[in-house]
Every structure is written in structure tokens, then in C-alpha cells.
Design a protein that fits this description.
The chain has one domain: 3-Layer(aba) Sandwich (Rossmann fold). Helices cover about 40% and strands about 15% of the residues. The protein contains 4 helices and 3 strands. Helix 1 runs parallel beside helix 3. The radius of gyration is 15 Å and the shape is globular. One of its GO terms (biological process) is proteolysis. This is Caspase family p20 domain-containing protein. One of its GO terms (molecular function) is cysteine-type endopeptidase activity.
Length: about 120
């Protein structure tokens, strides 16, 4: 088992939903196989976003280099929690792929602080 996978599983065990707080899940994938270039600056994204959301009293969990299996476990744990968070923010940074031309909304990093401010009021 990879170190990142073990770290994610350990952190997942501590994941709790607080109904009085916004639950923020941050995932940063920065190490890739030969098919895609590594993204070392994603580490900065993880650190700065975690700090930004914690300063706004969010319930924050950040994960690095997660697999689909870990992502599935994170979402399963949230969906099956006895508590419902005040709101849920899911932030992903890393490479992405379009699946069957589905529509998604992309927020540039420079927009994140103003978006967080709007939803944290």
C-alpha cells in the first residue's frame, strides 16, 4: 500500500460531520504516472486552501494523491453519516479529464477567496 493511500485511510477514520459547520473536503493530486506531468504547485494549493477554510471555521479535511477508491470512501462516509453538515464544499486540484462531455464549473484559484467569503457569511 502506498504511503499516500495509508495516510488518506488514516485521515478518513477521523472524518466527522459537524452539523454546525461547513464541511470542506480538499483533494490535491500532484504525483502522476508517466502519462501526465506531476504538478508540484498543488502542494501549495492544499496548504493555502486548508488555511483559508480553517480561518473561516470550516470543518476541513485535505487529502493528497487520492485514488478513486479513496474518493469513493470519502463520499460514502459523508453520505452515510448520521449528521448533515451545514454545507459541503468539495475542492479538487490536479489534472482533470472530461467524461462524456459533461458540464462542470471551473473556478480559477484567484477566485477562491471571494467565493469562500460569499458562502461563509
Amino acid at each position: 500500500m502506498s504511503l499516500y493511500k495509508q495516510m488518506a485511510k488514516d485521515k478518513l477514520r477521523t472524518l466527522e460531520v459537524d452539523p454546525n459547520k461547513i464541511l470542506t473536503i480538499i483533494i490535491g493530486n500532484y504525483e502522476y504516472s508517466e502519462s501526465k506531468a506531476n504538478l508540484p504547485l498543488v502542494v501549495n494549493d492544499l496548504e493555502s486552501l486548508e488555511k483559508l477554510f480553517r480561518e473561516r471555521n470550516h470543518n476541513v479535511y485535505s487529502f493528497a494523491n487520492v485514488t478513486f477508491e479513496i474518493l469513493d470512501r470519502i463520499l460514502f462516509k459523508i453520505a452515510h453519516s448520521e449528521q448533515v453538515p451545514k454545507s459541503l464544499i468539495f475542492y479538487y486540484t490536479g489534472h482533470g479529464d472530461c467524461v462524456q462531455a459533461e458540464v462542470s464549473h471551473l473556478i480559477e484559484n484567484k477566485e477562491v477567496p471571494s467565493v469562500v467569503k460569499k458562502i461563509s457569511v
